[in-house]
Write a structure and sequence with these properties.
Elements: E1 2-6, H1 10-22, E2 26-30, H2 33-42, E3 47-51, E4 53-54, E5 57-58, H3 63-66, E6 74-79, H4 84-92, E7 97-100, H5 107-114, E8 124-126, E9 132-135, E10 138-141, H6 144-155, E11 161-162, H7 163-171, H8 178-191, H9 194-199, E12 200-203, E13 207-210
Parallel strand pairs: 1-2, 1-3, 3-6, 6-7
Antiparallel strand pairs: 4-5, 8-9, 9-10, 11-13, 12-13
Helix pairs in contact: 6-7, 6-8
């Protein structure tokens, strides 16, 4: 899952990044509304963890910007100001959940469970053990990197995945040539059915969208 953390408390944002990264989520962090806005312009996210007060900035103001996008994240508001007035404002903006500070990073896990991506529309699933994809009941053996690519695409189906994000997820901190990623993606297409190739859309100069049938 792609998650944007908008938080000016560096210690908390670091804890959230570490916890969510350990859970194999792709995490970006912004400490100001401007930084968050720039990240939203570049990519789409499944979830945004938004601080209510970013210094003197009102975190909720960025939610007006979300109306400009066709793909918008679920918003969870993090706040030390859990008043009735704040709750009403947040609900009017369509906030999904509240997290009252202080909280443990593990508190996010229950929210993520509620948001677990429904993959029923996709004919492809991942076996819980080994590097195996299951397509229409048939097992397909994958390499470790092919498995990671497919996992990230399924986690973010119907969302734009930039080439940079996919590269960072697959190789972590390793520096690898981008054409190596293209090779693994091509091999993955060859192993899976034509349906997978049809659903995986390449967005020129941006990245990929794995579109599931509706």
């Amino acid at each position: 899952m792609k998650i944007l953390v908008v938080e000016d408390d560096k210690e908390l944002s670091s804890e959230l990044r570490e916890h969510l990264g350990f859970k194999k989520h792709f995490v970006e962090v912004a400490s100001t509304l401007r930084e968050a806005s720039e990240l939203l312009d570049k990519s789409s996210f499944n979830l945004m963890l938004l601080d209510y007060k970013l210094g003197l900035e009102d975190g909720l103001k960025i939610l007006n910007k979300l109306k400009c996008y066709t793909q918008t994240p679920v918003v969870v508001l993090m706040t030390s100001f859990a008043t009735k007035e704040v709750a009403i404002r947040a609900l009017n903006y369509g906030v999904f959940k509240f997290l009252e500070k202080p909280f443990l990073p593990q508190s996010i896990d229950d929210i993520l469970d509620e948001m677990e991506v429904d993959r029923s529309s996709s004919k492809i699933n991942l076996a819980p053990h080994g590097h195996v994809a299951i397509e229409d009941g048939k097992e397909v053996e994958l390499t470790e990197l092919e498995y990671k690519i497919l996992s990230f695409l399924l986690e973010n189906q119907n969302q734009l995945v930039t080439k940079s994000e996919l590269h960072r997820y697959v190789y972590s901190s390793e520096i690898k040539a981008r054409n190596a990623l293209n090779t693994h993606l091509s091999n993955l297409k060859n192993k899976l059915s034509d349906d997978f190739t049809r659903q995986l859309k390449t967005i020129r100069s941006k990245g990929y969208i794995f579109e599931t049938d509706t």
